[in-house]
Amino acid sequence: MPLIALDLDGTLVDQASAARAWSAGFVDEWRLPAGEVDVVATALTARRPKGEVFSEIIGRLGLPTAADDVWLDYRSRMPSLVTVTDEDRIALTELRAAGWTLGIVTNGMLDNQEGKIRRTCLDSLVDGWVVSDDVGVRKPAPAIFEALASRLGCALEGWMIGDSLELDVAGGAAVGLRTAWLDDGSDPTGYRPDLVVDSVAAAARAILDGQPSATPR
Ligand SMILES: [Mg+2]
């Protein structure tokens, strides 16, 4: 059956609120100014390799600890801080019942991303996933989408649902997928998602209703 590829952070799980909760704990632990919660949370929500982000944070704050240790703490706590909405869980169940193969394609470290997938029970709602750290290539490179299709044993035909214009919309379109963009407030000039939605559930409704034509091109 055709594939629906889904992004994880900011799409299936509320990475930004979870990052903010972690940042609040970090600021408290190190007795930093309260304003640092927003600064650190914003840095951790940027779509960049987190190793770089933690090096910058620890260097800027001059803390007597290793950036790698703080990054490890972040990865160990994030799986218990993210949530998935009930509406999105139901939508995934309905898509699978309609015959779609569901796979998560996400940039990040295997322990953190897989921890989030398992802790939220998304592992029981999708058919599989690929994490960039595990396959050695990050979105938007075509190879990570090809790795997902290969892992799931299906053709690279169907949809990509995600909140990043560059990683998910452009990346998915480049390998022939239709794209549903969860509007994150970015300027979409230059990108052409097939759907603009506010949740995975909304994308699923449109796909199941065949608007626009949900069958592979
Ligand atoms: Mg995302």
Describe this structure as you would to a colleague.
Its cofactor is Mg(2+). The chain is of the alpha/beta class and 217 residues long. The chain contains 10 helices and 6 strands. It has a 6-stranded parallel sheet with strand order 3-2-1-4-5-6, sandwiched between helices. Strand 4, helix 9 (165-174) and strand 5 (178-182) form a beta-alpha-beta unit. The longest helix is centred in the N-terminal third of the chain and has 15 residues, at 15-29. The chain is elongated. The two termini are 14 Å apart. The model has no long low-confidence stretch (mean pLDDT 95). It binds magnesium ion (MG).
- What small ligands are held by the chains? magnesium ion
CATH superfamily of the largest domain: HAD superfamily/HAD-like
The outline comes out as elongated
Taking the sheet with the most strands, its summary is: 6 strands, parallel
Rounded mean pLDDT score: 95
Describe the strand arrangement of the main beta sheet, using strand numbers: 3-2-1-4-5-6
Specify the structural class.
alpha/beta
- Which CATH architecture of the largest domain is right? 3-Layer(aba) Sandwich
- Fraction in helix: 40-55%
* Total strand segments: 6
Name the CATH class of the largest domain: Alpha Beta
Please give the alpha-carbon distance between the first and last residues: 14 Å
For this structure, the CATH topology of the largest domain is: Rossmann fold
Radius of gyration of CA atoms, rounded to a whole number: 18 Å
